[in-house]
Amino acid sequence: MEVSVLNINGQETGRKVTLNEAIFGIEPNDHVIYLDVKRYLAGQRQGTAKTKERSERSGSTRKLGRQKGGGGARRGDINSPVLVGGGRVFGPQPRDYSIKLNKKVKVLARKSALSYKAQENAIIVVDDFDLASPKTKDFINIAKNLKVEGKKTLVVLPEVNKNVYLSARNIQKAEVMTANAINTYKILNADVLVMAESSLKTIDNILNK
Question: pTM of the full predicted structure?
């Protein structure tokens, strides 16, 4: 699949790049996409929810009433879960929600997500660019020139670029990532991928090992 290379003014440079069919042209596998997105979202969970059980509540351990004959449930001390202010039964405890996936599954998921974007013609390749200083206005102008303003846009760069990152930081629907950090969730969550030309080579090296 060939894609025209644009500059940041939205004009064609006269060059074209061929997207690797082994990455952008495969038959997408929906199940591995589901697994990888599930893994990513699970990894975002803090897992710090915690409630106090009976033994962790502070309070007297004096038995409040008789074992039998009171007409109600046995309740023991004031920390009983039966009473207001008592411990909670089977409450949440700190846990790790992370899910392990094999490397090949994660690679296939990213390839599938990129193939979906290629099928939707939602990939724009731009000439490598830099900004002289971090200015949100400059990034907005680039988005207008590329006709992606107002869309969820994922800008993929070959390496960290502080000026581009800071320029896009305050724009709600724009996100900047390096090619070696993109994941299935971020790819699918974006309406359009704006990829610097050099980032394609990095993606090829990572996903075609």
Answer: 0.84
Task: Domain ranges for the chain, please list them.
Answer: 2-46+101-208, 48-94
| CATH superfamily of this structure's domain 2-46+101-208 | Ribosomal protein L4/L1 (3.40.1370.10)
Please provide the average confidence, as pLDDT, over all residues in the chain.
Answer: 93
pLDDT band at 178 (very low <50, low <70, confident <90, very high): very high
Where do we find the tokens 């997408």?
28
**pLDDT number for residue 2:** 86
> Taking the CA atoms of the chain, what radius of gyration do you get in angstroms?
27
CB 115 within 8 A of CB 28: yes
Per-residue pLDDT, 73: 84
Which structure tokens are listed for 1?
């699949």
Pick the closest to residue 193 from 94, 116, 97 (CA basis). 116
Q: What is the 3-state secondary structure (H, E, C) of 102-142?
A: CHHHHHHHHHHHHHHHHHCCCEEEECCCCCCCCCHHHHHHH
Structure token digits, residue 93:
């405890």
> Pairing relation of β-strands 153-157 and 192-196?
parallel
Q: Is 2 strand, coil or helix? A: strand
Report pLDDT for 39: 97
pLDDT band at 102 (very low <50, low <70, confident <90, very high): very high
Which SS3 state, helix, strand or coil, does residue 9 take?
coil
